Amino acid sequence: MSLKQKIILITVIIISIIILIFVNVWSTSKSESDGIKLYAEALEYYKADDFHKAYKAFANIPNRSVLKPAAIYRQAKCADAMQSDKLVQKHYKQLIRKYPDFTISIRIKYLLAQNVYRTSPKKAKKQFQNIIKKYPKSEYAIASKYYLGLIQITQLEGITNPTKLAIEMQKAEDYFKDYLKDAPAGRFAVYSINKIIDLGQNKLSADDNLIIARSYYQLGESKLAAKYFDRTNMAFSWTDIAKNYYELKNYKKMKEITENGIAKYSSYVDKKDVYKAIDLYLNVSSGNKSSALAYLSSISMGRTGEDYLKYLTCMNTQADLKDTCYYQLYNNFPNGQFAADALSNIIFSNIKYKRYQTAMKLGKEHLSKFHNVNSTPFVLFWMGKVEEDLKNYEASREYYKKVLNDYPDSYYAYRAYVNMYRIQNSVIATDLLNKPVVFPYEHSKNGDMVIKLALLKDYGLVNELCKNDKFVQSWLEYEKGNYNKSVVLARDAMEKLAKKPPKTDFRWRLVYPIHYYDLVQFYSLDNNPLILLSIIKEESHFDAKAKSSVGARGLMQLMPQTANEIKKSYGIVLNTPDYLYVPKNNIQIGSMYFSKLKKMNDGDEFLSILSYNGGYGMVNLWINKHGYYDKDEFLEQVPFPETQNYLKKVYKAYWNYARIYGKE
């Protein structure tokens, strides 16, 4: 072959490859475009409960489409609605074979086993056992134990040998008990309880009774729970019994059980349960909390809960004794759960009295000993502030920058930013760019499938695919209009992330949405709209129908008496009984009230926020006692933890609204 012929051949091959690539890309693109269109049509049939048409329509999704596995799954659901077990099993097996890495493959295997169980329990047994073996921590493994219990019962028929029958009955009972341990309030809980009782033939052990009692408690059946708690070993169940008496409002008995448990059995139960019992005890001792703390402390010496009681004592003791209390807590429990918080309070005490050298030494000890704990941003900020007071500006900036880098969404990041850039009046933003809440991810681990399903509003399948993703669950609640639940889910999910995403990440918009912002702007008066929005977020999480235990109502949680005074002073006429549940009314009156507080506090926004929660009179008492020369020092000495944390939460929200939506 000549050189010219070789060149022509190579050229033809290259052109052929390019054409093939182009055709493949075009084919894939067309398949995806067709897939989206066809899936949307099929979904409409599905939502209309026309399962026959939906089944056929989902079958038309091209094999190349990323939506194909979703379409097959939907076909299986259609077949289930049409009561065709054969087709259900066909499509579930197809998914398991062709798409083994499909996100809900565990669920598909479970649903397949469930379907097989209807007609052939023995065949399903192996499938349920495999789920438990391969996915032992999954919810489907838990549910599989219930089904194995049912299957085991069917195998009791025909057994005449008493010994063998007892062994097989025990196996069935154990399956139901294992299910209840993992899912005490699960959908099969009541049936499992009944089967344990039947199979146990009135010979239940103390442990069996505890399993049943805990399940009834979780199901909200406290009276039934009490019956079984009475048959348990007190050493292992006293915290459960105390909680149950609390639900029954038998506070005398609840306190008696808690006192006895702390004195005798605290080492037999989880320390978190001891802490919970202590909290409930103090809740019903609100009229004499200090005496209750002192008594529990006296009987907890050397026992589980002693450090927690000491920590609570320090939090509730008078200001001039707090320092000594925290020193004792840290010295007695240097590696305990509350040591980091105790040390941070000791650090602030030294800063307050200008013992900077000691404070910096203890600060470095804190940062070295405790990593990424709740008090870390506090310590970093105050070390930065001390260096600033000492005119070590470069060192100060390094601490401030670390707070901003490692804890970018915290209250102390806001204060670090204000101090580092010397911002007057702490005002960093008064307006924001309107960015809508969207699906929380630009890319999904399922490729584009989840994104496309979200755009197609197949919320049911998105929910199943992302059942354990709290941000997606938050977005789904947002789409339903459940703003309060959406915010709480996203907030809790964000708090669990060790490293926070950049401020441009879509997830932040779920944590800090801008509901009612048009009303906030319209009624803001002389107030910063972002501060009002932040108050709404922390007061009600955007639940317009919110009502507190003391009667505060609506978005800004206004007391009716306060609202009536504002109405009267501004000449507002609103006579409907539920006017505070109307967003427009609540925001208007809330803004007027905040404006009034600002006038009373000489325009000081910081003090007005404290007054909004703690009351104007109390704020003035704190100013007279501690002085108001430095906002940061003043806040850390506010004796009401709720009010102190309230201001931090409001400014944290304000800071994040400015970060996420602020004009660059």
Account of the protein in words:
With 664 residues, the protein is mainly α. It folds into 4 domains: 25-184, Alpha Horseshoe (Serine Threonine Protein Phosphatase 5, Tetratricopeptide repeat); 238-426, Serine Threonine Protein Phosphatase 5, Tetratricopeptide repeat (Alpha Horseshoe), CATH 1.25.40; 449-511, no CATH class; 517-661, Orthogonal Bundle (Lysozyme). The chain is 70% helix and 0% strand. The chain contains 35 helices and no strands. The N and C termini lie far apart (66 Å).
Topology:
Blueprint: H1 3-47, H2 51-59, H3 68-81, H4 85-98, H5 105-119, H6 121-134, H7 139-154, H8 162-182, H9 189-200, H10 206-218, H11 222-229, H12 234-247, H13 251-264, H14 271-283, H15 289-299, H16 306-316, H17 319-332, H18 339-352, H19 356-369, H20 376-389, H21 393-406, H22 411-420, H23 449-455, H24 459-465, H25 470-480, H26 483-496, H27 507-511, H28 517-522, H29 529-540, H30 560-570, H31 583-600, H32 605-614, H33 616-626, H34 631-636, H35 641-661
Helix pairs in contact: 1-2, 2-3, 3-4, 4-5, 5-6, 5-7, 6-7, 7-8, 8-9, 9-10, 10-11, 11-12, 12-13, 12-14, 13-14, 14-15, 15-16, 16-17, 17-18, 18-19, 18-20, 19-20, 20-21, 20-22, 21-22, 22-35, 25-26, 29-35, 30-31, 31-32, 32-33, 32-35
